[in-house]
Write a structure and sequence with these properties.
Length: 339
């Protein structure tokens, strides 16, 4: 085990309260359509990223967009010029939901990601590289990409049993995808594609839960928690990415049976004080500065400095520093001064 791995395991265990990683995505190889170009740029990125300070463990980001888990169920994936990947829904009713069938978990973007990983490892002549999973969207996120969202929300009220049947199947499929990914990578998984943290599968896995802000606390308690709890139970723990406004779900998360390892939050959409007061030292926070937050703070360094003033003594924080940003050196000075 490397020094960095030992340190970051101590972060997850709570022995270390503050840490930071310095992550560069230049050149950007994520979500490219040409596999060979992805390999070339990923190798270049890995070979040049070792110069940065921080607790950085080399990792391949196997990112093919937010549609990866939904695409197993069908639907045309679209890439508008200058836009982001999207997928056309295939379900507009409870009856169609019951008939929907996903592809094999070991296929799709699981197979695509693992091939990219093997190709990059071969090019670097190493078996020590880590890889993220593809973008693991949570059960609600995945379902809402497949089931037209307006109809999906109406179905929660009118045909809740059908929604639960579908979410149950989606969750089972997600668990199988993650299992295939971990096995295919020989266990060298370091978390989800976002945020840029290191989370080995013997501790837990990461998911994206951006649908959580759209539901009331009661609705999320019924249609969200049972399924993320099941994923947590299968893999031992969860790190949850959500970049929206989810303060109204904090009690749900706190009182759930999941082993919640950490939370990403985007300022100012979810108040840091609410997070710190709700969870104390029980989770690791990864802060991001959202578009509205840019209007409040001059730069990322001033945002980090403000967070340090608002944190409680036992708040656990994992800062992500980006070398490409103009205030990079100031970010470093702030976070290194907090350790």
């Amino acid at each position: 085990m490397t020094v960095a791995e030992t340190h970051l395991r101590r972060v997850w265990s709570g022995e270390v309260l503050r840490t930071y990683s310095c992550i560069s995505m230049t050149p950007n190889y994520r979500q490219l359509s040409d596999p060979q170009q992805q390999v070339e740029l990923a190798v270049e990125n890995l070979l040049t990223s070792h110069i940065y300070p921080g607790w950085n463990i080399p990792r391949l980001v196997a990112d093919f967009g937010t549609v990866s888990t939904a695409a197993y169920w069908g639907g045309r994936v679209r890439l508008p010029v200058g836009g982001c990947l999207s997928i056309e829904p295939i379900i507009y009713s409870a009856e169609q939901a019951d008939l929907a069938t996903p592809g094999e978990p070991s296929g799709g973007d699981c197979a695509r990601g693992l091939k990219l990983y093997r190709d990059v490892c071969d090019r670097l002549e190493t078996d020590q590289l880590y890889t993220t999973t593809m973008d693991i969207q949570g059960p609600l996120n995945t379902a809402a990409l497949i089931w037209e969202q307006s109809d999906f929300m109406v179905a929660m009220l009118e045909t809740p049993d059908a929604v639960h049947r579908f979410l149950d199947r989606v969750t089972n499929h997600l668990i199988s995808i993650i299992e295939c990914y971990i096995q295919g990578a020989g266990g060298r998984i370091c978390g989800n594609v976002w945020p840029y943290i290191w989370l080995p599968p013997d501790i837990g896995i990461g998911i994206t839960e951006d649908y959580m802000p759209l539901l009331s606390a009661a609705m999320y308690r019924e249609f969200g928690l049972p399924y993320v709890e099941r994923i947590s139970q299968r893999f031992g723990g969860l790190f949850v990415h959500c970049c929206g406004t989810y303060e109204h779900q904090l009690r749900n998360l706190r009182e759930s049976s999941m082993n919640l390892l950490g939370l990403e939050f985007s300022y100012p959409y979810t108040r840091p004080e609410a997070l710190f007061e709700t969870f104390g030292d029980s989770v690791v926070f990864v802060p991001q500065l959202g578009p509205k937050g840019v209007e409040e703070f001059e730069n990322k360094a001033s945002f980090f400095k403000n967070l340090l003033q608002r944190m409680q003594p036992d708040t656990r924080m994992w800062f992500i520093v980006h070398p490409e940003e103009a205030d990079y050196q100031n970010q470093l000075a702030v976070v290194e001064g907090s350790l």
